[in-house]
Structure formats: structure tokens, C-alpha cells
Amino acid sequence: MKLSSKILYSVIIALFLSFAVNADSTDYDNELDSIERSLQTDINIAIDKIDTILSSELSLTPQQHSRLYGLISAKYIYLGDFAKADEVLNKALSFNPRGELLTNIYLFKITANIGLSNYQEAFSLLEKNLARIDNYQDPRIKIQSYSRLMNVYLELGAYDEILRIAQLSLNLNQGKDPKYQCYLMLYHAVAHLKLTHFDQAETLFKDTQLYCKDNGFPLIEIMSIKGHGNVLFDKGLYAEAEPFYLVALERYQKFKFEVEINEIQSYLSVIYFHLDDFQQAEMFAQLVNALPNKPSNMQVKKRVNEVLSLIAGKRGQFDKAYQFQVVASALDKQLLDEQKVKENAYQMARFDSVEKNRENTSLIQDHELLMKQKDLFMKEKSSSVMFSTLLVGLSVGLLLLLIAAWLQRNQFMKQAQRDGLTGILNRRAGQEIAENQFVQTQTLDEPFSVLLLDLDLFKHINDQYGHATGDWVLKKVTNMISDMLNPTDIFTRMGGEEFAIFMPKQTECVATEFAEYVRNAVANINTRFSGHEFTVTVSIGVSSVGKDDLSLDPLIHRADMALYHAKAIGRNCVACYTDELK
């Protein structure tokens, strides 16, 4: 189990409290300030104050109107009603907000659209807003935009980028604004947790909790308490994690923060299952399972259906266990599809924006060049020097823009090729690269070998120790094998716990020897750092190119047959393909 990306919907709530004051009436500004403070402490009081100020709506200035509707949308975000939040934000935009207030409203529209799975619109808005950052001297606006960018990276699983931007933003803020210092400290802690830097994450969550408490930001304080619980949860310390979740749950109830409440209840269902309190586990699981089937609930419903399946299995109710597992598997597939949609939408938005900027810049430059050429004939010879300098500058600027677009394109293409959990090549990208290498080796009549690896009894690790431990094993194994590979080897996650290593220019003998080296290294992994003591082993099938092979498919098929044989003869071994396996 990992910290859910729903923290995206958590941090933005606190960011709603950063609306700029740009109104003429001091009294109403004070009332809006009071609503902001109430949103940080008690949503019921905030709602009452909103109703009061709405009764005097005609007295508000346009900027106060925008600010009011921005605050109203915070209420709907708390309740997970992203459609209503987006509708209210559109109303806020109708009053033509300015400056920081306008930037905030667009940032919150990004969040609402992500909540609605309108990723293309969300990422287009993000790109437009990021393009405006350099137009502002106020570092707070830059920090807000960087915060939204970190939310997007959290959705895409780009945790190294979150860590980099969090550190950049902390350096930019330098503790000057306690509010943003609080947010950025939380992101910093989340990035370390996602990267499984548990000790650092635990310390950072503690520091964030104390800092936010001392500076009067209770919502981020609660998020830090929950984050501390997630660290312990991911380490498998369920009894230690329980009190953190219970405290966070009780305090979130005051905010009616549905998204966070649902997620904590799903974690508690897992905790009580591991603590053998099946009644409590089932109670929390059923609360979550009764939620509507909407995108923001898919992850938590998948989690509790897995718990309900395990509970039914423990009770011998195997039909029920199977039904719950079918639901969990279907939700898991939806989540994977959703992740692909997000990544594709983000890349498309980025590429479209770069292309539009390039076209607009080109048109402006063409117009300027024509005007300069016209003026050239009407000025003295000395003015030609100035024009030439300007022309060179424009050319250099265009070149830099094209280089930047090319680098961005390569960056996102690289992200699309990587497996989100392990960071190695995904199946599509890995096989495509390997196929190209295979064609080259065939042209030169060189050897080519394939290793198919499958972690033994991996489902038992997930079932007995939890998915967080399973994820730890997958990352540990891939990191270790990556360090053992040659630069020409192609390491790919084929799916689940199955991997492939494509080895251009390597004979079957060399590949078999390497496979045995990998098998031995995996068997000697120290799992203590996962929080549990258990053994990890791997079965490996090996095949090499034959004279009749015209593509990679026959090699992969033979390696799969060899892998199946390795499993059949007892696992934790290496098997090479032979004609007897046909």
C-alpha cells in the first residue's frame, strides 16, 4: 500500500485559503477573512458565514464576489463534489478577478478538473498558468504554481520531480511566508515517503506537524499526522499506525473532509485485518464500499474489496472471497487505464502548448521582420546595424524555443516508456527497443538471448504482508538487477511480478550464467528492511536466437516455456529451453 495520490485533493483545500484581498469595502474583506479562518477550523461555522454574506451579495465589489465564490468552491472540494466546485469557480471568473486572485482561481480549476477526470482540460490550464509565472515578481505566485505542478507530478507518479520542485520552492520561500512554508514542508515529506525514504519521511512529517501547529494551520497539521501514519503503514507497523489514523479521522470529521475520511477508513480496514480484528476491518470496509462509484473513490474501494476478500477467505466463504476479488481486480484495471489517460492527456497538453507557442512566436517574428524590412529602406545606413542585431537576437530566441520544446518532448516520451512503480522500461517500450536491437544483431549474424524472470509465490507476499511490502520487493529486485546489467541489456517489466532481460550479442551460455548470478542475488536479499522477515526467490527461463527466428516472439515464447519448466521442477532455479520442452 502507498500513500494515495488523493493528497492532491487535500493540499489544495488549504491552498484555497490563500485568496488575495482586492476589494474596496474593508468590512466585507474582514468578513471574507473570517470565512477563511473558519474553513481552517470548523466548516459548519464557515458555511453559516457564507450564507450570511450571500444575503448581502449585491453590496460586494467584483473582486469580493470572485473571492467569495472561490471560498464557496472550497466547501464543495471538502465534500468531493468537484463538478459543483468547477461550476462555482466559473462564476468567480465571471467577475474578472485580477492578479493573484485570478491565478488562484485557475489553479483550483485545475484541481477540480483532475477530480472530474477532465485531464486534458486540467493540464492545458496548468500549462497556461505555468507560462504566466515569469510575468510576476511576487514569489508567492510562483510557489503556488509550483505547488500545483507538484500535484500533477503526484498524479503521474513522478516522485523525483516532486522532491526537486519542493526543494526549489523551499529555497524560494526561505521561511518568509509560514503558510507556504507549511505546504511545501508537507510536499517535501510526501516525496520522501513515495520514494520509500521512510526515516527521512517520518522526521519531516513530525517537523511539519509541529511547524503547522505552531503557525496556526490545523488542516496541514492533520495531513502531517496522517502522513506519519502512512509511513508506519508502509513499513508494516500496523499497530503503531492505528492511533495516528484515528486522530486524523476524528479531526477530519470536523471539516467534513469526505475524500480524506474515506481514505483513512480504507487504511483502517487493512490495519484491523492485520491485527486480526475482522469485525472492525469489515465495518470500515463496508463504509467505504458503500460509496458512489466515481473516480475519486476507485482506489479506496479497490483497497477495501481486497480486505473483504481476505476476510471472507478466512471465514471459509470462498464464493464471497472470489466475488470481492473480481471487483478489486476490475477497479485495479480501471485505475491503470485512468493512469494511462492522465499521462497521455498531460503529454498531449504539453506538446500542443509548445506547438502553439512556437506558431505564435513565429507569426510575431515574421510580422516584426516585415516591418523592419520596410523601415530599412527609409532609415540611414547606421540603422541597419541595429536591425541586424535584432534579427540575430530573434533568431537565437527562436532556436532556444525550439531546443526547449525538443527537450520537453524527449522528457515526456521518456516518462511514457517507464513503469510507474519500478522505473524500468514498460512492456511496450522494452519490447520495441529489444526488437530493434534484435534486427541489428540478425543483420550482423550475432547471438541474442532472452531471460524471463518471475518472482516465486509473490501473491503470498502480498496476501501475508500487504501490497506495500510487495511493492518494496519489486523495487528492491529491480534496483538490484539494474546494477548488475551491461549497458546494452534491456530490462523490462512485462507485468505484475514478471520481468524480461533482453541481451543483444550474448550467447545462451553467457545468459544462463548471468541468470544464475541473478537468481542467487535475489535469494540473498535481506528483507528485514521491509519490516518483515521472509525469503524472496525467482525462477528464470532462458532462450537464445535460432537460425529460423525472424523476430523476438519465438525467443520470448521459448523463454516462457523454459520459465514454466523452472516453476514446475520446484522454483528458485534457472531453466534453458530445449527441444524436449516443446
Task: Report the strand count.
Answer: 6
CATH topology of the largest domain: Serine Threonine Protein Phosphatase 5, Tetratricopeptide repeat
What do the pLDDT scores average to?
79
Helix content: over 70%
Overall structural class, as computed from helix and strand content, comes to mainly alpha
User: For this structure, what is the CATH homologous superfamily of the largest domain?
Assistant: Tetratricopeptide repeat domain
Q: Determine Rg (CA atoms, Å).
A: 28 Å
Pfam family, one: TPR_8
EC number: 2.7.7.65
Cofactor: Mg(2+)
Transmembrane segments: 385-407
Structure in words:
With 582 residues, this protein is mainly alpha-helical. The chain has 4 domains: 157 residues, Alpha Horseshoe (Serine Threonine Protein Phosphatase 5, Tetratricopeptide repeat); 87 residues; 64 residues; 157 residues, Reverse transcriptase/Diguanylate cyclase domain (Alpha-Beta Plaits). It is built from 23 helices and 6 strands. The chain has a 6-stranded mixed β-sheet. Helix 1 packs antiparallel against helix 8, helix 7 packs across helix 17 and helix 9 runs antiparallel to helix 10. The N terminus is likely disordered.
